[in-house]
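Appendix B. Chain record.
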Amino acid sequence: MNRFAPLSPHLPILNRWLTLAAALVMAMVVLGGATRLTESGLSIVEWKLVSGILPPMGSASWAAEFKAYQSSPQFLQVNHDFTLHDFQHIYWLEYLHRLLGRVIGLLIAGGTVFFGLRRYLPRALLLRMLGISLLVAAQGTVGWIMVASGLEHAPRVAPIKLALHLLLAFSLYSALLWTRWQMLGHERFLIPRSMAIATRGLLTLVIVQVIFGALVAGLRAGLSYNSYPLMDGQFIPDGLHLMQPWWRNHLENVMTVQFQHRMGAIAAFLGVVWLAVYGYSKTPALRPALRILLMVTIVQFSLGVATLLSGVALWLAIAHQLVALLLIGILVRICYRAPLKCQQTQEK
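Structure tokens predicted for this chain:
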């Protein structure tokens, strides 16, 4: 039975709507990663929700934007030798990032209003999409708060805010996928409860690992200790707990933040291997998904090591973030297929 029935007359257009929204969120994550890695995110020093839709037009507008940027910490402390031409390079990337965010917001929130008024959405789906629209608003708000943190004193966004921003993007992507599967009535399986719990535990572990990765990015910790498997000549290096109080090390200590990301990667990799072996024998219906999960995890682990050894090469880092999103999507898919309730559903 369809979770959001009755929908049959409108399924094709609603399916295209949610598919496009999920694809744009994926593109947003990739573009956001490129913006962060090229340090373009601080190039636009004001948030203009409506008037900011259009880029600068003409030399006078560009001069005004550049003048505003010249008062920012990034220009004063890092890019003080930038010309207008240099500024335009980083401006366009951040502009496209913000523009895509507006498009996603309009597509999801505007689409919810449009389809709701036309009564294409049953009550349950309408409430779900209103919640997702709020998630989009939260994502945009946190994004600006994150950028604003790098416009005050030091030209660097707060790592914890970057982690929250990325986590919200992954949550939005997952919510769109889950809603689409429910709307289309994708099949769910009767599996051992232990397998369903293990899958959700592994998803939680990978989410924590994503947060660790965002902290690494926020501190630029990947630019240090570019060797593997040893770190500063040791598997467990000295200096992991130099800061006081102790918890600051896990958020601000470059060595500790990178080390916990390394250990999280190993834990997640071993968790996937265990889940694949355990689930392969216990749940034949999930075997194709488990094989894909294992292959994508191997690719992701390899990309992480390669990114570190390269000194955070741009294309490797972007690929690493994109595959992390795919990995989360696969795990969410398995969680959807493997409900916690021990009952067979007939969503076809």
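Further analysis of this model is presented in Appendix C.
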